[in-house]
Design a protein that fits this description.
heterodimer, A: alpha/beta, 7-stranded mixed beta sheet, 6-stranded mixed beta sheet, 20 strands, B: alpha/beta, 3-stranded antiparallel beta sheet, globular
Chain lengths: 627, 356
């Protein structure tokens, strides 16, 4: 793939490839500089121009970390291009650094020969000290292996917004729009959607709208007219070839929210969402709180336990109970999950995983809650677990979680992570009609052979009937104590506990009979190496396997959505490969599950830095495995 | 039920509220009397078993739902208020009774007790206070008096006990009542709690026959009850005792110290107590300040305040929340296809080079 970093020639027709297929741009600045917003808007304009893309927002846990500090740097990376894009890109081709700290923390990732655009106005003594630079890196030649464009964005912005009479602080806040204007020029993007967006955003304060638009235009004009042509050239990235249809960008958190709404509709149920604020899961609660017209009730509970407890209460009263959290909150919900398993009530639990243990890395990504999801409860407490692989995949996974919960009368955990939750990608807007409904059935009269009520009788799936509290004549008691297999009355007898434990396990195992067989995502169904993944590692694995296959290596990708119970054919499928490699952002949890379930020699490839895998890391592991 | 809908009378008898399950409390446990009182009250208030839900946490008291022929949910330790809140939001028509204990409601579930009260979810919350952990075999509880000997406090407990009614008032409760298991007036307190629209908090002193036997004898035993129980009634003077038991007494408000005081009340010529002369105050269930004083009266120098201590309803959580939801839905169409295609979208045509 030709990229900017192949040198300016690659982009100006000097080489055979006239334009790059994909470019990775990273915007980095102080957490108060509006980098996430700049990135978000750049993403939108990129999507509108028809490129495929993937993004990676990476920001500190502190809301307003002290200005100019190394730990206060907020970054947003976008990979876009005219080919299929599955990751946010390994190494940026372009780094926009709004201050010395942003340069220091990000320049190491930049491709050799890549382009640095720096705001020289911020490289003053104070900021250099905060970033622990002894000498100004823009002047000491230390950036020689990259191309450097440094100009005083702060001053240029102040000049551009001068006519609007803003205070110095407010005027400087337009810097991100100036930078965005320059970026839009670099990649030949239309400014109009941004202008519309700014006008809408600052509807109440037209001066701010105009100032920001002026900054945007000034940045764009700077690119167009600056005499310092050098590496700053305009690049047109051709639109990606994609299926015809209506598209939008979507983040994982948005797609989960929409999928839950769709799932509740397909189940013909009102949805009750009990949540408690936690990073990075809160966005789902925020989104759903604005979707009341879809029969959604949201409840901000006093804690994580109350959030799940209220959702179980709502399920007991006949709604689709949903709760969401991240690792620490999921840990608190564990006992209540056991109750939902014991009372066999439908419930969807979304876990937006983050780095752990304990508080860990609240804003960074990890996949280390897999054991917690599959095994993390007291007693034999089986629960289906689904993992989404990308932002848009969250939509279908959320629907699938609702389906299993309702059809099998069980809590279901849906795993996503901080990376998927915040990252955006283009999404072909699905037709709601294309999903098969799974309407919930409520018991309306007594179901026993002798006219008695049997709340724990089972259907062919092993599911008990859903009896909505308030149904005339079907009064019964449920609880967390072991129960009689039919009546549900308290029953501690040995045979009863054996029967019920077996029934709960059989029911959850049986979920696999209703899910599609595991497919090989890329490559042959047998071969030398299978790279088996789950969740958000999909993108880098996919690209790495693709590259390795181009080199002629015998490698296939198997990406698992239903991580518990596992697809019925997975064991057989894995036996068709000589080697199995399991890349995970944890210390090897899925690898252990696979070894346990199939006695296969699954080998781990682990990363726990809070950052997603790069394609190169996985590619190297593939080559090593096949060497 | 909604704030405004009148309660529909449903015809049942006490038998209709008994389940076929064997009651498994210890013989002589105060819980039996409370169960009977509840089963007696349910027909009287015209409750419909299909619309009634008993929700509980964990502990002796929390076995209660298994013995009432209605919907019942025996949940997890301390969390019953959160389950009840979800149930009420999902279906406000359900009449929810919450049964908890001093360990369940004041210790592990104190947080949830606070929040159901401050939100004012329309439920009846019955807190059985036996001042001990019964089901786990007799450890001291958050309401145990200082010096309680127990397996976990062999030298006597040193923590100060929590006052459930004071906690409830502090949490914003709009209904506070107190009674005890074998009291003949428990039924009327339960009825008042049920009539109150909102979270109604009832502390019921309950005799744990095995681990804390006769703990409340100093105000419930025959012979001392009359001098040690102050049953408050809205609009009536706060009087207790009798000539026969050692004199009529009353509660006054000392205006210098702004605190309650016990005074002797002389009889008028016709033999009725001259409470006006003694300055005895009249109970007003809407007086929150006096309610605070009543629930905090130290027992000994003062009698135990019982009955409906505070009752001043305000809109329930679920009625307000669901009305707001309705408002948010008004005039909006639940069109999923439109929702999915919201925001800035673009259309891709048949060829990559030809984006529309």
């Amino acid at each position: 793939m030709a990229t900017l970093a192949d040198g300016p020639d690659a982009l100006t027709g000097g080489k055979e490839t006239p334009a790059p297929e994909a470019v990775v741009v990273r915007f980095a600045g102080d957490s108060g500089d509006g980098m996430q917003l700049t990135g978000g808007q750049f993403t939108l304009s990129t999507a509108l121009s028809g490129n495929d893309l993937a993004t990676f927002p990476d920001f500190p846990a502190e809301i307003r970390a002290p200005q100019g500090t190394l730990f206060g740097v907020s970054a947003f990376q976008i990979n876009f291009g005219s080919t299929e894009i599955d990751t946010a890109g390994d190494q940026p081709d372009v780094l926009v650094a709004m201050n010395p700290a942003a340069l220091k923390t990000n320049v190491g990732a930049l491709k050799i020969g890549g382009l640095i655009i720096a705001d020289s106005g911020e490289f003053n003594k104070r900021n250099l000290e905060k970033a622990k630079y002894e000498v100004n890196p823009l002047e000491d030649g230390s950036l020689e292996k990259w191309q450097l464009l440094a100009f005083d964005i702060s001053a240029l912005t102040l000049e551009a917004v001068k006519p609007f009479g803003l205070g110095n602080k407010e005027a400087l806040r337009c810097k991100n729009m100036w930078t965005l204007g320059l970026a839009l020029w670099m990649f030949d993007r239309d400014r109009q959607p941004l202008v519309d967006w700014l006008n809408a955003k600052f509807k109440k304060s037209p001066v701010l709208a105009e100032a920001n638009i002026a900054a945007l235009n000034a940045g764009h004009a700077y690119g167009e007219t600056a005499e310092l042509a050098g590496p700053l050239k305009q690049y047109h990235i051709a639109p990606v070839e994609s299926e015809p249809g209506l598209y939008r960008t979507v983040t994982g958190a948005e797609a989960i929210s929409l999928g839950l709404v769709a799932g509740a509709q397909l189940a013909d149920l009102p949805m009750f969402f009990g949540g408690y604020p936690i990073t990075p899961a809160s966005a789902i609660l925020h989104n759903l709180a604005r979707l009341k017209e879809f029969g959604v009730t949201t409840f901000q509970a006093e804690d994580e336990i109350a959030a799940i407890a209220s959702a179980i209460g709502a399920s007991y009263a006949g709604q689709l109970g949903v709760t969401s959290s991240s690792g620490p909150g999921i840990a608190l919900k564990g006992e209540a999950m056991g109750l939902a398993i014991m009372t066999e009530l439908p419930l969807v639990i979304v876990n937006s995983q983050r780095g752990g243990p304990s508080t860990g890395l609240p804003t960074k990504t990890e996949q280390s809650d897999l054991y917690q999801a599959i095994y993390g409860r007291n007693g034999d407490a089986p629960m289906p677990v689904i993992a989404a692989r990308s932002p848009s995949d969250c939509f279908e996974c959320a629907i699938e979680a609702c389906r299993i919960a309702v059809e099998y009368m069980t809590p279901v955990m849906l795993l996503t992570d901080g990376y998927i939750g915040n990252a955006a990608e283009p999404w072909k807007v699905p037709d709601p009609e294309s999903f098969k409904p799974f309407p919930a059935k409520f018991l309306s009269e007594k179901n026993g052979p002798n006219g008695e009520l049997l709340p724990f009788a089972r259907d062919e799936k092993g599911a008990r009937p859903w009896i909505k509290a308030g149904t005339p004549g079907l009064m019964h008691r449920i609880g967390g104590i072991e129960k009689n297999p039919g009546t549900g009355n308290i029953d501690y007898s040995p045979s009863s506990h054996q029967t019920m434990t077996d029934a709960r396990k059989a029911k959850v195992d049986g979920v696999a009979n209703g899910t599609p067989a595991q497919e090989v995502t890329l490559g042959e169904t047998t071969g030398k190496l299978a790279v088996v993944g789950w969740g958000s590692t999909y993108g880098p694995i996919h690209q790495a396997v693709r590259r390795a296959r181009r080199k002629g290596l015998s490698v296939s990708q198997i990406h698992v959505r239903h991580v518990w119970p596992l697809p019925t054919n997975l064991g057989e499928l894995l036996k068709g490969y000589d080697k199995i490699l399991v890349p995970e952002m944890n210390t090897g949890q899925f690898k252990t599950v696979l070894r346990d379930q199939y006695l296969v020699d699954a080998q781990p490839l682990n990363k726990t830095s809070g950052q997603p895998f790069t394609i190169a890391e996985i590619e190297a592991a593939i080559e090593a495995a096949l060497a | 039920m909604n704030d405004m809908t009148p309660i529909e009378k449903f015809q049942t008898t006490i038998k209709d509220w008994e389940t076929d399950q064997e009651v498994r409390w210890c013989p002589g446990c105060g819980d039996y009397a409370i169960l009977k009182a509840v089963q007696r009250v349910l027909p009287e208030i015209g409750a419909d078993p299909s619309k009634t839900v008993f929700v509980s946490g964990i502990g002796c008291s929390s076995r209660f739902p298994y013995y009432v022929e209605s919907y019942g949910f025996h949940t997890i330790h301390g969390r019953a208020p959160a389950f009840a809140t979800g149930i009420k939001l999902a279906n406000p028509e359900l009449d929810v009774w919450l049964v908890t204990g001093d360990g369940d409601g004041m210790s592990i579930g104190g947080n949830h007790t606070m929040h159901i009260l401050r939100r004012n979810v329309n439920t009846q919350i019955l807190l059985f206070n036996n001042e001990i952990y019964g089901l786990t075999k007799g450890q001291y509880s958050p309401t145990s008096r200082e010096g309680t000997n127990s397996p976990t406090s062999p030298l006597g407990s040193v923590d100060r006990p929590a006052l459930p009614c004071a906690f409830a008032l502090g949490s914003g409760a709009r209904f506070i009542a107190r009674a005890y298991d074998v009291s003949k007036d428990l039924g009327s307190v339960l009825k008042a709690a049920h009539a109150h629209q909102g979270a109604a908090f009832v502390e019921i002193f309950q005799n744990c026959i095995v681990y804390n036997k006769d703990r409340f004898d100093d105000f419930t035993a025959k012979g001392v009850a009359d001098q040690n129980q102050l049953w408050v009634k809205d609009g009536e003077p706060m009087l207790f005792g009798s000539v026969k038991s050692g004199g009529v007494k009353g509660i006054t408000l000392d205006m210098d110290t702004l605190s309650l005081k016990v005074v002797d009340v002389a009889a008028k010529e016709d033999g009725t107590p001259d409470w006006q002369a003694a300055g005895v105050i009249v109970h007003n269930v809407k007086n929150r300040a006096i309610a605070h004083m009543l629930v905090e009266m130290p027992f000994g120098p003062f009698p135990m305040a019982l009955g409906v201590i505070y009752d001043d309803p305000r809109p329930t959580y679920e009625s307000t929340a669901l009305a707001q939801d309705e408002q948010a839905r008004a005039g909006k169409e639940a069109n999923l296809a439109k929702l999915l295609g919201k925001g800035q979208t673009w259309t891709v045509g048949n060829t990559a080079a030809d984006p529309i």
